[in-house]
């Protein structure tokens, strides 16, 4: 664990890459409980943190508030773990900050390239337009698809089978006056975001973009889950990564959802994994069933969110809490998602989630 004085002295700026080009020590924990009275040291620590390629996670064990924390340093760090709830988006409350910090260190060490790339994206994304940030995310995602860590994940899983053709329309579209109701309709695959469902969803969104008499688009899902993320049957099968990048950014649902955001309400239920929350986060209104669960599990595969999550989710909950979701890969309850602003309202869904 590093002290603030060590951070100010440049300790986190040690060589990032080993002799073979692999990332060394991708995440460093910074102890924020030791008081630093020297403002020059604090300002230098902020500057060093802003320049650092490594992920920097602050940690405090103090349960009597966060008044001892230096706000500019909280801005510069990648996230800060605290033992008490806080509305501050830079802080993540956990039962045991030290144990959680060890978990984050292990997660980053297991996928170091993805962790470091994710940190850079989360820092630079807010300075870009949504379209530019989606391009940056997709280019990074394509790079990681060709990486050793993702190859290791692929080799360890059972041989994939391409998903069968959809037995019915993968997306249902119904106009109700000036409302367009769009329903993901592959319940047998938990509405996994595969090619057929993606193309049908984009076609429905394009319809709304072309018809300004539609004042609202309501997006929901049939079956036990709103969307279980990318279809694993199609995961990593393309070797044509430049084309895959263009499909993600020019034929994916993220950009049309962003363009429609002021007219879109998304109703979530069940598992909302990967794309199942990355895409809804673009909408201006997200309503979740109280039993809904949210996860961003991509880092465990050596990847980062690739359906727009490094763009949409930070714009709702901040880059600090987004990093925590990705590093841990742990489920987030609907109640906490509401507290953080990932969803806007809790409301029970119907029997099929529609």
TrEMBL record:
Gene3D superfamilies: 2-enoyl-CoA Hydratase, Chain A, domain 1. Pfam families: ECH_1 (PF00378). InterPro entries: ClpP/crotonase-like_dom_sf, Enoyl-CoA_hydra/iso. Belongs to the enoyl-CoA hydratase/isomerase family. It comes from the Bacteria. This is Enoyl-CoA hydratase. GO terms for molecular function: catalytic activity.
